[in-house]
Write a structure and sequence with these properties.
There is one protein chain. The chain is of the alpha/beta class and 344 residues long. It has 2 domains: 58 residues, DNA polymerase, domain 1 (Orthogonal Bundle), CATH 1.10.150; 278 residues, Aldolase class I (TIM Barrel, Alpha-Beta Barrel). 35% of the residues lie in helices and 21% in strands. It has 11 helices and 14 strands. The strands form 3 sheets. A 10-stranded mixed β-sheet has the order 3-4-5-6-9-10-11-12-13-14, sandwiched between helices. It has a two-stranded parallel sheet with strand order 1-2. Helix 1 crosses helix 2, helix 4 packs across helix 5 and helix 9 packs parallel to helix 10. The chain is elongated and about 70 Å long. The mean pLDDT is 93. The structure holds S-adenosyl-L-homocysteine. The site of S-adenosyl-L-homocysteine (SAH) has 17 residues, from strand 10 and strand 12.
Length: 344
């Protein structure tokens, strides 16, 4: 019999399981308490009766992710590479901002989206992460670093909306007052534009922020660097973003990695301004992180500044994102890539 993934269960599901095992519901709260503290063995749940511990061991699976690598940047960014129960590896980054510590979590092992500039997708998709595995990225990076996490961004490895059910489960578990208790408004989901899922996400009624990885305002460029654009197109994606904003009242953020001679022309800045202004939005310009496997380079700082000024002159809300953790490969699947290459 396959053991069940207890950490991915909602509190009410856990209660039902315990009732079925013939134990009172309050045991569920005790178990949740230990799980939220990072206890990953039933023996260590000291207030549970012996027969319950033995039933839990028989029917349920618990695993503590192991640190394969930990790197601390000069700017305080901490990056972890975790080993999962089947030997796969994912990475998690803690970034320290003035307003609090933000953890950037992976949602899949690898990714099937094939974006030209991204290291996460190079080996394709290996598998989805379970809700428990995403949750443990937060629990154990918080425990190990001693840094209290106040914000979560789903901007690590993977496309969260390709792993929708597990990601939704993760959101609810991270938000649970008895667990991590992180407000939905402090959680951001980043997507390359899987618009088929936007309405479903809005319908949940969770006020999470949606971040759209745009990277080009015209279909020719975007389809070249992001294959997922080919069947959808920039305009349909921007319309879906507007609908998401209208439904949730949340401002959307457009991510734009500046790639030399690819998406950094004046015309593209004007076109981006024209399209972004239709939505209650914010544009984040990010100098491309050079990935050694790809022949793409960041735009020059002067070009980024000019691009920014065009957007500002058109009334667009724009920031240039500060680079954090560059010295520890803290971007987009680079640590996992290096780990895989070193193994082969
Ligand atoms: N699949 C989701 C979330 C993961 S990627 C998405 O596409 O949004 C997190 C962000 O990093 C995305 O905006 C992605 O486009 C960006 N990114 C990937 N590789 C990058 C690189 N080399 N330099 C800068 N940003 C990059």
């Amino acid at each position: 019999m396959m053991k069940k993934d207890i950490l991915s269960m909602y509190p009410e599901e856990l209660r039902d399981e315990l009732t079925e095992l013939g134990h009172p519901g309050f045991r569920a709260d005790q178990i949740t308490h230990w799980l939220s503290k990072g206890i990953r063995s039933f023996e260590q749940m000291r207030n549970l009766p012996r027969e319950l511990i033995s039933a839990l061991n028989d029917g349920y699976h618990l695993y503590e992710p192991k640190i394969l690598e930990k790197k601390i940047s000069t700017d305080g960014t901490v990056k972890y590479l975790w080993e999962l129960c089947d030997g796969n590896a994912v990475e998690t980054v803690i970034m320290r901002y003035r307003y609090g510590n933000t953890v950037c979590v992976s949602s899949q092992v690898g990714c099937r989206q094939g974006c030209a500039f991204c290291a996460s997708t190079i080996g394709g998709l290996v598998r989805d992460l379970k809700a428990s595995e995403i949750l443990d990225e937060v629990v154990f990076s918080q425990l190990d670093s001693g840094l209290k996490i106040s914000n979560i961004v789903m901007m690590g490895i993977g496309e969260p909306l390709d792993n929708f059910d597990n990601v939704v489960r993760f959101l609810r578990l991270a938000n649970d007052p008895k667990g991590l208790n992180i407000g939905m408004r402090h959680i951001t989901i980043s997507t390359c534009g899987i618009i088929e899922r936007f309405d479903e996400l809005a319908a949940l009624g969770y006020p999470v922020t949606l971040s759209l990885s745009l990277h080009a305002p015209d279909d020719e460029t975007r389809s070249k660097i992001m294959p997922s654009n080919r069947s959808r197109g920039v305009d349909r994606i921007m319309d879906a973003c507007s609908r998401y904003c209208d439904a949730t009242g949340r401002r959307i953020s457009f991510e734009y990695a500046m790639i030399k001679n690819v998406n950094d022309s004046d015309e593209q800045a004007f076109l981006l301004a024209e399209k972004a202004r239709k939505t209650h939005s914010h544009v984040n310009l990010i100098p491309l992180n050079y990935v050694s496997e790809r022949d793409l380079h960041p735009s020059d700082p002067a070009v980024i500044n000019r691009f920014r000024e065009i957007l500002v002159s058109k009334g667009i809300n724009v920031t240039v994102r500060r680079k954090l953790g560059n010295d520890v490969d803290a971007s987009c699947g680079q640590l996992r890539r290096r780990h895989i290459s070193a193994e082969h």
